[in-house]
Fold:
Amino acid sequence: MPSHPDTVSPHPAHTPALTIWAVEFFSGIGSFAEALRQTQAPVRTVAAFDQDREAGRVYRQNFGLVCSTRTLDSVPLDHIPPAQLWWLSPPCQPFTRRGRQRDMDDPRAASLLRLTDFIALVRPQWILIENVLGFARSRARLMLLNRLEECSYQTRELTLCSTQFGTPMQRPRWFLVAGRDQLPQIPDPPPLRGRHPLAPFLDDPSALPSGLTLAPDLIRRHARVFNVIDPADPTAAAICFTAQYGKCLKASGSLLLNRDGSLRRFSPAEILRLLGFASPFHLPSGLKLDKAWKLVANSVDVRCINHLLQHLFPEEPA
Structure:
């Protein structure tokens, strides 16, 4: 990793030609880094921030970069290295339908507010942000857009869902792209004639981890709140997985119907495939199942990020 000066400049003089440096805030297990690995975008991550140490362990294992666990609502400006691109996927709890919707009054929004203040000081060339659809109706969004306008950014807002890329999973999310220069058009993905079947995203039954199958008494008591899908159904699509998957049985993600009539949860590896993570990405051995579910369910669909990158940084013609 290159060395950085102690102060932040919006135009690092030592940036290699044609390489854009990026900082990932709220990096999680590395959806943005995975998208960079899958595209030809001339972007290199030079720093990542996430308070979750297990997420940082996954990130380091797969991308070779140590995540800072510094709290972003108190991080000093000179701890953020120079970069032309900022990626942010801030906590969604202040804006979710199932949460209390405290918006900017939620303590978990403090980190986003602080980074928004830093935008006026650093003014990175590009800013990409992802959150739940509820963010589009929030006071935090208005505050963010006002700050970007004050700093002469152009902005594009769009909604992308996994289903738009043929994935048999619903995961609509709000995205914002901001740039200090003219932004390209970022269209919706082209219409699809159909959706991929669910079966290719699933593990071999012989390789499934233990702890996925639901106990019969649990099914009897809570069957009415389940979202059950049959992998043999060519139209089957999972509902959005949340960080409560494995703990909460209602609206936290779908269950699979086994051939013997039992029900099981999706494995973390299956959810990763649905989110567009590809080999050689993998979770560390020994990671507890409930933690693995939380980490993957907090991630961003890699295909959505790919879509943004491909339009922001189109490949040069040969």
Q: What stands out?
A: Residues 22 and 130 are 15 Å apart (CA to CA).
